[in-house]
TrEMBL record:
<dbReference type="GO" id="GO:0005886">
    <property type="term" value="C:plasma membrane"/>
</dbReference>
<keyword id="KW-0997">Cell inner membrane</keyword>
<dbReference type="GO" id="GO:0015628">
    <property type="term" value="P:protein secretion by the type II secretion system"/>
</dbReference>
<comment type="similarity">
    <text>Belongs to the GSP M family.</text>
</comment>
<dbReference type="InterPro" id="IPR023229">
    <property type="entry name" value="T2SS_M_periplasmic_sf"/>
</dbReference>
<keyword id="KW-1133">Transmembrane helix</keyword>
<keyword id="KW-0653">Protein transport</keyword>
<dbReference type="Pfam" id="PF04612">
    <property type="entry name" value="T2SSM"/>
</dbReference>
<dbReference type="GO" id="GO:0015627">
    <property type="term" value="C:type II protein secretion system complex"/>
</dbReference>
<protein>
    <recommendedName>
        <fullName>General secretion pathway protein M</fullName>
    </recommendedName>
</protein>
<keyword id="KW-0813">Transport</keyword>
<dbReference type="InterPro" id="IPR007690">
    <property type="entry name" value="T2SS_GspM"/>
</dbReference>
<keyword id="KW-0472">Membrane</keyword>
<feature type="transmembrane region" description="Helical">
    <location>
        <begin position="18"/>
        <end position="37"/>
    </location>
</feature>
<keyword id="KW-0812">Transmembrane</keyword>
<keyword id="KW-1003">Cell membrane</keyword>
Length: 161
């Protein structure tokens, strides 16, 4: 095959040989550019863009980290912890959240509550407030749904930690 190509090439005039050689060189350059150089440059640009994006994220995260280090008190919930009797604290929070207790409460560390026909979301807000501001948590709970939508009967034992 190579012999046939040499014979064909030898038969060509010098002008035709120059055109064939130039065409081969041009085809080689285009082949190199299209299969190697252009994909490599495109990938390089994508990687540079990714590096820039990652550096921006890293700067943002370091800034956030520094902000958190400088202001740790903003992460802590504000507390109104006192040495008051737990039953007084719970009673005042029940009034604040407009909830009515059906049982008498007593105790310094633990209290029993029974609420009838109260809004469930209001009870959750009440419990969240006690937990965040007074370190008072639910020890036991008994929920009983009733026919009125959104209302519940609930018995619970609250404990201060």
């Amino acid at each position: 095959m190579m012999q046939a190509f040499r014979q064909w090439f030898q038969v060509l005039s010098s002008r035709e040989r120059i055109i064939v050689i130039a065409g081969g060189i041009l085809a080689g350059i285009l082949l190199f550019w299209g299969t190697i150089w252009e994909p490599m440059v495109t990938q390089h640009q994508q990687l540079l863009t990714q590096i820039d994006d990652r550096e921006k994220e890293l700067r943002w995260m370091r800034h956030g980290q520094q902000t958190l280090k400088n202001a740790p008190q903003t992460l802590q919930p504000k507390t109104n912890k006192t040495n008051k009797d737990i039953s007084r604290i719970v009673e005042s929070n029940l009034k604040r959240f407009k909830l009515q207790n059906d049982h008498k409460m007593s105790g310094t560390k633990e209290v029993q509550l029974s609420l009838k026909k109260v809004p469930a979301d209001q009870v959750m807000r009440f419990l969240g407030s006690l937990e965040k501001t007074q370190d008072i948590y639910v020890k036991t709970m008994d929920l009983k749904p009733i026919n009125d939508k959104g209302l519940i009967n609930i018995s619970m034992r609250l404990k201060r930690i």
